[in-house]
Amino acid sequence: MERDDLRIETGFLRLEASTACQLKCPTCPTGSGEIHKYIGRGFLRKDQFRAFLEQDRGKTRMIELSNYGEIFLNPQLLDILKIASEFGVALTVRNGANLNNVREEVLEGVVQYGVRSIVCSIDGASQQTYELYRRNGDFDRVIANIRKINEFKKKHHSPYPKLAWQFVIFGHNEHEITAARRMAAELGMEFRPKLSWSDDISPVQNHEAVLRDSGLQATTREHFQEKSKTVYLSDMCDQLWEMPQVNYDGRVLGCCVNYWEDFGGNLFENYDAALNGEKIRYARGMLTGRLPARDDNPCTRCDTYKARAQLGAWVHPYSPRKRLKRTAKRLLAFVDRLRCRFALGA
Ligand code: SF4
Questions:
Q1: 302 touches ligand 1 (CB under 6 Å)
Q2: Which of 85, 190, 198, 335 is most buried, with most CB under 10 Å away?
Q3: Substitution candidate for ligand 1 out of 230, 257, 297, 310 with most atoms within 8 A of CB
Q4: Distance from the alpha carbon of residue 225 to the mean position of ligand 1, in angstroms
């Protein structure tokens, strides 16, 4: 009998803590309000989070909290961090936070409760450049908040959270890549340059210099696709198998890109029905190239799916490489849990 690889069981989830954001970044569907038309503007509630972890009985080991909004605007975030720590669930903020407005006790909480990592989106090395994209953002305040986290890490003798500086490359900030990399090193942050979503806003000017300063292999997503014959960041589709995205209210969005339609089911009501409902299983079939596109499926409207279909670049969720990656991820999560307990003296 053929294994039903359209069903999943995973200990890893993406659960958005906030779909609200105070910045107005051009091209961002959160800043324009586009995402709020469908997934709403709201926050993960601590009572729902606790109830979910109680009924989950230890199945979930790691949760990513960030996606389209700014998690630090969630007024119950400190309680959420505490609850996750009580249940031994590792939290990450890898998709990104802007860190413009954070209460001091929350900055201490991310250290005390062992948030594993925070990626901070800072596309510039000065206020002048930073605010051109991160509109309403305050560069100095962000840097001050990072310094405070570092002080709390020292105070609590903790290596967590690991910090990374994400720098989306535009024409208006390409001259500051090197300075930002240097500042990141001074702040103990990993530096991660990233290609912009589109060339519609401030495209890269000096391609040669950007390749040299960023260390990336391309300066635009189209350029990347041409060179590699793969879709840029297309591994996001793997999230349907490995780490499905859930909205703050429990609706299943599947991956971090989708904000236009949910897959049905609600994580807070029924875990299995939510992560293995008919629509999301059908999407897994589409993404592996075994089922045709269907109009009622969110993936059908996605540019990544369209590019996959054009290139015939389907997902192979059970390839030896992916199996190995999943095993390594589980092992690392186990080691991480031990290491964190030791580091925090829990
Ligand atoms: S095709 Fe698009 S919506 Fe579907 S999983 Fe991939 S990135 Fe997400």
A1: yes
A2: 85
A3: 257
A4: 17
Distance CA 119, CA 192 (A): 9
| Residue 299 CB–ligand 1 contact under 6 Å | yes
CB 317 within 8 A of CB 238: yes
Q: Name beta bridge partners: 190.
A: 164
Q: Is 304 in the pocket of ligand 1 (CB under 6 A)?
A: yes
SS3 content of the chain, % helix, strand, coil (to 5): 45, 10, 45
CATH class of 12-344: alpha beta
Containing 282, the helix (H) or strand (E) segment is helix 278-287
User: What pTM was computed for the model?
Assistant: 0.92
Cα separation of 33 and 244, whole Å?
A: 23
Closest ligand 1 atom, CA of 240?
5
Ligand 1 center–CA 200 separation, angstroms:
22
Distance 304 CA to ligand 1 centre (A): 6
**253: which DSSP letter?**
E
